[in-house]
Every structure is written in C-alpha cells, then in structure tokens.
UniProtKB/TrEMBL annotation:
<dbReference type="Pfam" id="PF00381">
    <property type="entry name" value="PTS-HPr"/>
</dbReference>
<protein>
    <submittedName>
        <fullName>PTS sugar transporter</fullName>
    </submittedName>
</protein>
<dbReference type="InterPro" id="IPR000032">
    <property type="entry name" value="HPr-like"/>
</dbReference>
<dbReference type="InterPro" id="IPR035895">
    <property type="entry name" value="HPr-like_sf"/>
</dbReference>
<feature type="domain" description="HPr">
    <location>
        <begin position="10"/>
        <end position="70"/>
    </location>
</feature>
<keyword id="KW-0762">Sugar transport</keyword>
<keyword id="KW-0813">Transport</keyword>
Length: 81
C-alpha cells in the first residue's frame, strides 16, 4: 500500500500548485484532490475516475494531473467542460 501513499502525496502536491478547482469524481463521491485525507479514503487503483478541473490554469492543471495519475497507474479521464 506504500506505493498508493506515494501516489496520494504526489497527486495532492501537484494539485496544490494550481489555483484551479480540481475534483475527482468516483462512483457517487466527489473528492478535492488537494485533500490528502480525501484521497487516502478514496484512491483505489482498480477504480476509474473522472477529473473535473475548472479555473484560470485549468489547461496546465489537466496536463500535470493526467501525468501524475498515469505515472502511478491510476485510470483517470479528464471531464470535458
């Protein structure tokens, strides 16, 4: 489970570099990816997630978040506006 911990920390750190709102949608939950606690209780590699990004730096945030999720083998699609 330690690799998951690394993923959670890196995802939260990457997200907090942006002013945009970055929210992970999984089943019936919405999690602010800047919240390490929220990620710990939600992030399971077998699930697929949808990432919602809104804000002035959304384009850069989407690219960075896609990269970090892929690096950790997590299945995430970026929601279109």
């Amino acid at each position: 489970m330690s690799s998951n911990n690394a993923a959670v920390v890196e995802i939260a750190q990457t997200a907090s570099k942006f002013t945009s709102s970055i929210v992970l949608h999984s089943e019936n939950k919405y999690i602010d990816v800047k919240s390490i606690l929220g990620l710990f209780t939600t992030l399971i590699s077998t699930h697929s997630y949808e990432l919602h990004v809104h804000g002035p730096d959304a384009t850069e945030a989407k690219a960075a978040m896609s990269e970090v999720f892929a690096k950790h083998g997590l299945n995430v699609s970026i929601a279109s506006e």
